[in-house]
Amino acid sequence: MQNMKKIISGKVREVYEIDDNRLVIVTTDRISAFDVILSKPVKDKGKVLNTVSLFWFDYTKNIVKNHVISDKLEDMPEFFQKPEFEGRTVMVEKLKMLPFEFIVRGYIFGNMWNAYKENKEFCGLKIEGDYQQAQKLNAPILTPSTKATEGHDIYVSFDYVVNALGKETAEKIRNICFKVFDACYNHAYGNGIIIADTKFEFGFDTDGNIVLADEIFTPDSSRFWSLADYKVGMSPKSYDKQFIRDWLTDNQIDGKMQFDNVPDGIINKTAAIYQECLEKIVR
Q1: Tens digit of each residue's pLDDT (9 = 90 or more) over 9-21
Q2: 272: enclosing H helix or E strand
């Protein structure tokens, strides 16, 4: 345990290496928008993300193995047995992570909508059919991206993934993605939330099994819409960071976003959005 060291300090998460086989991930209250960390944290955001992710990992454990070992502080090194780590800390299996994010999209929105309007391919796919913005696709699609250590991730075709991982592994992951998305979409829909899209990350354990990792179906990794407010053809009310993004976009000064000047009211409203999302999902 003396060898415990922080190996990653990300936009939201702190990752500690416990030994050769285990990591501890702490989800902070930091929030980022447009790849910049805001100076003000969002109260209990880390606890919401951790709780939601743990709920989904448990919900999907019969579909695919996940990396969670324990979320109990008493199972962790003494360093983490403090009040500030409660509810936001998880011990996980150390995996050989794949260099891709696997994004499942059930609705046409964002970058995919822009490509569709311009009659362009998206991730090697030609979107056929007559769609409006935010409309449900005939069937969910998988749009992978590379995981960039710096700068933005790059969208790639599924064939690119096949070439990198081999056909059998790539197809197995694709099938897992659709099964997990389908199960969780139905649960959320029944509770008044539309999961428009989400991203997954996978790794291999020491036995070569495909393991679901990182976070799943959180407001940070997914596009959640309010079912009650949803209308085809317009941008729906969302349970994610869009509220903060909209404020930053609408309140630029001399073309610069005010990352350090977001009002407390906007931060508090964002905290309430995350809390409402938690209450709708975890039941």
Answers
A1: 999 999 999 999 9
A2: helix 264-281
